[in-house]
Amino acid sequence: MVVLRSVVFLLLQSILTVIFAFFALLTFPFPLFTRYRVITGWNRAVVWLARWVCGIRYQVLGMENLPAVPAIVMAKHQSAWETIALPILLPPMAVVLKRELLRIPFFGWGMAMLAPIAINRGDGRAALKQIAEQGKQRLADGLGVLIFPEGTRVVSGQVGKYGIGGAWLATHAGSLVVPVAHNAGELWSKNAFLKRPGLITVSIGPVIDPAGMKPDALNQRVQSWIESEMTHLPRYAQASAKQ
Fold it and tell me: How far is Cα 239 from Cα 243, in angstroms, rounded to an integer?
């Protein structure tokens, strides 16, 4: 059943991606927040499919920790699920991503309409400058900034190297930071075709004020909270695999 569900999910997701890509292009004349509401309809549809086709449910803890002003969200990166779900679980966000993603047919077209910060990960210094400059502008425009400091998806149970970009932006923009942990990789793991049923837990941590902090110290504080919180999140993949 897991294989069949995963096949059906992939087919339906592909169809939705093509359809929403054309809707995304039609939103070009509209303001950014209008485009955001329309285009993230794809995110909602895919999360809905993940639930009703693959049995992937979710719960969110700590919503009360989200500040009333645009902030920088630094999240664990294990899966494609969080890249799809977080933009609809959080206030409108500009996502920091590798620029190659915008070249993907259909999917990349939609992403390009959401004012992402598309960086060249091969040029660290230029990427850091771009994150700082464009991140400040997105925050001034009323968007939060969503960044996955590990840069690439890591296998559940492992810890990637936390890049400095999000902390650098926070300390230079004076913007609040919100750490986010989750266990999506337990059910929708890195580069895996199979999606297993179960419950994903997203945990939103207390706001961190970067005032007076150096980027390295802030980055370490974010990593410490996320990785500590990861040890408290349930392991659902093993149980759901037996269903």
Answer: 7
pLDDT in tens, 35-83: 999 999 999 999 999 999 999 999 999 999 999 999 999 999 999 999 9
- The string of DSSP codes covering 96-159 is EEEGGGGGSTTHHHHHHTT--EEE-TT-HHHHHHHHHHHHHHHHHTT-EEEE-TT-S---TT--
Task: Point out the residues of the chain with pLDDT beneath 50.
Answer: 237-243
Q: For 10-22, write each residue's pLDDT tens digit.
A: 999 999 999 999 9
Short-list 179, 113, 172, CA closest to 146: 179
CA quadruple 97, 102, 107, 113: dihedral sign: positive
> What pTM value is reported for the model?
0.91
Within the chain, residue ranges assigned H as helices are 2-26, 32-39, 41-52, 81-89, 107-112, 124-140, 165-173, 215-230, 237-240
**Strand, coil or helix: 88:** helix
Sorted by where each starts, the structural domains of the chain and their CATH numbers stand as: 2-240 (3.40.1130)
Q: Which of 67, 87, 65, 72 is nearest to 218 (CA)?
A: 72
